[in-house]
Design a protein that fits this description.
The complex is a heterodimer. Chain A is an alpha/beta fold. Helices cover about 55% and strands about 10% of the residues of chain A. Chain A contains 18 helices and 8 strands. Chain A has a 4-stranded parallel beta sheet, with helices on both faces. Chain A has a 4-stranded parallel beta sheet with strand order 6-5-7-8, with helices on both faces. In chain A, helix 2 runs antiparallel to helix 11 (about 250-270) and helix 8 crosses helix 13. The termini of chain A are far apart. Chain B has helices spanning about 5-15, 20-30, 45-50, 65-70, 80-90, 105-115, 135-155, 160-185, 195-205, 210-225, 250-255, 270-275, 285-295, 305-320, 335-350, 365-385; strands at about 35, 55, 95-100, 120-125, 235-245, 260-265, 325-330, 355-360. Chain B is globular and about 65 Å long. Classes of the chains: A alpha/beta, B alpha/beta. At the A-B interface, helix 7, strand 4, helix 8, helix 16 and helix 17 of A face helix 4, helix 6, helix 7 and helix 15 of B.
Chain lengths: ~425, ~375
């Protein structure tokens, strides 16, 4: 294949990892989730390199920018690049301990405070180290957290390219949704003017339809994750957000959702069990353990712990986009961006959605305990930890909180986290479960 | 007997002497309700127009912050934990109302915990947009109208345009006085110290505006007489202080003990709160939305660095500063990212910059002293080189 003209080592290495993993997983043809993930990421790399080679217009966005909205631009002319894409890809298929750490350090050397979320430090480090394509325009959202908003402040100042920022409100009432939809219109006009490329609502309609199909599949999938014993690995849950954020409204997103749904059906029909012993179910209310996905396998293999659902994997398929008019599509995308996007839904606004989702997930997935993975830079997550503890007490669900970093393995070595989990299960979860039975 | 500046400063010191300060007690004894708020983005005028007293929430240096930490964890700034601790332990029970907001995640979470654990009689949460375009100002106005309606319903008092216009005018007057007082720091030998100025501007947030205006007028009058005798230079390094939230004059006093005059600032209890006025020609609610959302910005606004930097540069020049001290509370993310932009710009312009990370209400004097002295030496070297 022909890679991009700008051959950054970090991307080359990630691409090579994908090819190696592809060889490994293609042998296991029933591992449909992994094969689908590798396929869509490979496609993403092709699109990125092609965009650079062909001189397409590149638009920067942060991770909460709704992909579906951007599909209204001709993909042969515009490539939408999420600032966090490299760090996530590195974590999922590359060497997070090498590149992500380096890029985070680069941001700190540039003056960014070390307690800023590593996602944003890595994104900024990627820019400072010139390992990301140069943008023609930028479109950012002020969600889901302070770190993101401030990364935006840095990027606005540094790229020197036409930039528009959209405000995400605290609540998601109808008037708030209309406010966001109105701003989408302003964004479209801004990008049209600066890219000199016309936005096409026909394309948008197609993207919305693809999004809706993806969401229907995901809705079926979240239901099938409920029955005991768990049939599909925990890791799969943590991958969903990485797919939805990058591939909403794109055929790749739909392909992935179709495959992972087919996989769970297949596993259940064959009676496959994720763990061999007495299954302990944990609801994971926060950022995934992306820095080392094998950790989920360790939980299953060593402690019989499964994660049937997490905060990032749960999506409400009730919020499909009405494609009957331009206005309805704008509002539908806005509603999904506010009500149906992880972190924005739970963490941008009031504590009520977060606690409500927590209660619902514990009940719905028959949790034996819950986990709040304390990603170090996640201020708004930490700021609700006291209320979460109280909610757990009310529900009688043991809650484990621990510090780590979702992308930088240096913060808390996996060995330490393993000990924390082992002790928690031995000292709290198992005795509590035994007392109940 | 002619009053001395020290005597006149007492009015402001009284406002900071305790949370439920004598002005607040007096207002309450006159039947006024006091409404606590966290941020410089909430219009004080709107609350005052409803016959209430707006009160900017502060922490209490030295306070045990265990209660707040229980809810917010150790990963949030010590100011948010300090203020929430005060609420949880009933130190803010004198407030009749509380308005939370989301200018930063820490204040948002502190506000939410406050409302759920220690609700006041009146509780409201307001969204402060993180962008200041036309659409956003209009949305902010809607938020303010919603707040106004809830205040009216709760207090039983309608807030008319006339009420608003009167308060807008009054607060403009107070801000004008603050600007005039601040300008006295422009002299080579500043007539007011940085810590005194912060005392005055912090007091502005913690006392009824009707009490603040005469106190500020008297002090200004006295100081203006005094400035005629201002001769020569203090010989100290002239510093602009910027960065995150700071309401502790003691911290600035310590800086000023190290051969430094803090001659200007760009902090939310300071100049950021009084540099801009409300436009009296506009519809009063629209004017409030416009002024409060687009004023000298804090970095919670997602595209605000260039505006902030332009204003800081202007103030730096106006006040003839020799360097900038950028301070922020540990875990303050919004200013933690801004430090990157500041360092780049200062380097490019050859402005000496000292970045200080601190905790609310206390500091390690030894280390701070060393850093400040080294910074002063750097400034002196630069001056000599020029």
């Amino acid at each position: 294949m022909i890679l991009g003209k700008e051959r950054w080592q970090v991307w080359e290495e990630a691409y090579e990892s994908i090819e190696i993993l592809e060889d490994i997983f293609s042998v296991a043809s029933d591992d449909r989730t992994h094969n689908a993930l590798l396929k869509i990421y490979k496609g993403y790399f092709h699109d990125l390199f092609t965009a650079i080679d062909k001189g397409k217009k590149i638009v920067y966005g942060n991770f909460a920018v709704p992909g579906t909205l951007m599909r209204g631009f001709d993909t042969d002319k515009v490539f939408w690049y999420q600032l966090e894409a490299l760090s996530v890809i590195q974590s999922l298929v590359g060497e997070p301990g090498v590149w992500n750490s380096k890029l985070a350090d680069a941001a700190e050397e540039g003056g960014m405070a070390p307690e800023i979320c590593s996602v944003d430090r890595i994104a900024h480090g990627s820019w400072l180290n010139k390992v990301v394509p140069k943008p023609d325009a930028c479109f950012y959202l002020t969600t889901p957290c302070d770190s993101q908003t401030c990364l935006v402040n840095n990027m606005v100042n540094e790229t020197g390219k036409p930039t528009i920022v959209l405000d995400m409100p605290y609540q998601a009432r109808d008037e708030d949704i209309r406010y966001v939809a109105r701003q989408f219109r302003v964004v479209i006009k801004f990008l049209e003017d600066n890219l000199k490329i016309k936005y096409d609502f026909g394309r948008l309609k197609h993207a919305c339809e693809v999004y809706n199909k993806m969401m229907v599949n995901i809705a079926d999938w979240v239901e099938l994750r409920r029955p005991r014993p768990s049939a599909q690995p925990s890791e799969t849950v943590s991958l969903m957000a990485a797919v939805v954020t990058v591939f909403s409204g794109h055929q790749s997103g739909l392909d992935y959702a179709t495959e992972t749904l087919a996989e769970i059906k297949d596993f259940q029909s064959r009676g496959i069990k994720t763990v061999s012993g007495d299954e302990l179910r944990a609801i994971w209310m926060g950022t995934p353990y992306w820095t080392d996905l094998n950790f989920y396998n360790w939980l299953e293999g060593e402690l019989n712990i499964t994660v049937p659902m997490d905060m990032f994997g749960y999506y409400h398929a009730g919020n499909l986009i009405d494609t009957s008019s331009e206005e309805k599509m704008m509002e539908g995308i806005a509603r999904n961006a506010m009500r149906n996007f992880p972190m924005t839904r739970q963490l941008l606004g009031s504590y009520e959605d977060y606690l409500g989702d927590y209660r619902m997930l514990c009940r719905h997935y028959d949790a034996d305990f819950a986990v709040i993975p304390g990603h170090l830079g996640c201020t708004h997550g930490w700021g609700i930890s006291g209320l979460m503890r109280e909610e757990s007490e009310r529900m009688g669900i043991p809650l484990l909180m621990f510090e780590f970093d979702m992308l930088d393995p240096r913060v808390k070595p996996r060995d330490d986290v393993e000990i924390i989990f082992k002790n928690f299960v031995d000292d709290i979860v198992l005795p509590k479960k035994a007392a109940r039975t | 007997m002619e009053k001395t500046n020290e005597m006149l400063m007492k009015s402001f010191n009284r406002a900071l002497s305790e949370l439920n300060n004598p002005y607040i007690k007096e207002a309450q004894s006159n039947g006024k309700k006091v409404i606590g708020l966290f941020c410089s983005y909430i219009p004080l005028e709107l609350i005052a127009a409803g016959g209430m007293v707006p009160y900017r929430l502060k922490g209490q240096p030295g306070k045990d912050i265990g209660a707040g930490t229980t809810y917010l964890s150790t990963r949030l700034c010590t100011f948010s934990r300090n203020a929430l601790s005060l609420a949880l332990e009933n130190d803010y029970s004198f407030l009749s109302g509380f308005i939370g907001n989301n200018t930063c995640d820490q204040i948002r979470r502190a506000s939410q915990n406050w409302i759920i654990k220690k609700p006041a009689q009146f509780n409201h949460f307001i969204h402060i947009p993180r962008v200041y375009g036309e659409e956003n100002v209009s949305f902010f106005k809607d938020q303010l109208i919603e707040l106004k309606q809830e205040l009216e319903e709760w207090s039983g008092k309608k807030i008319s345009d006339d009420d608003l216009l009167k308060e807008n005018l009054k607060y403009n007057k107070a801000r004008e006085l603050l600007r005039k007082l601040s300008m006295l720091r422009k002299y080579n030998k500043p007539v007011l110290s940085g810590s005194e100025m912060l005392t005055i501007s912090a007091a502005y947030h913690q006392m009824p505006v009707n009490d603040f205006i005469p106190a500020a007028e008297s002090l200004l009058e006295n100081l203006l007489k005094e400035k005629t005798s201002d001769k020569g230079s203090s010989g100290k390094a002239r510093i602009l202080l910027c960065g995150g939230m700071i309401d502790e004059p003691d911290y600035i006093a310590f800086i000023e003990e190290q051969d430094i005059d803090v001659v200007a600032d760009a902090v939310c209890f300071g100049m950021r709160s009084y540099r801009d006025d409300v436009d009296m020609k506009m519809d009063p609610m629209e004017a409030l939305a416009e002024r409060y959302l687009t004023h000298f910005p804090c970095p919670h606004i997602g595209e605000s660095f260039s505006k902030r930097w332009e204003t800081i540069k202007q103030v730096y020049k106006e006040y003839n500063a020799d360097g900038i001290i950028f301070q922020r509370l540990k875990f303050c993310q919004i200013w933690g990212v801004d430090s990157h932009n500041m360092s780049g710009e200062c380097e490019e312009m050859g402005i000496p910059l000292l970045t200080l990370e601190r905790e609310y209400g206390f500091f390690s004097t030894g280390q701070l002293k060393t850093r400040l002295q080294a910074f002063v030496e750097l400034i002196e070297e630069r001056k000599e080189a020029v």
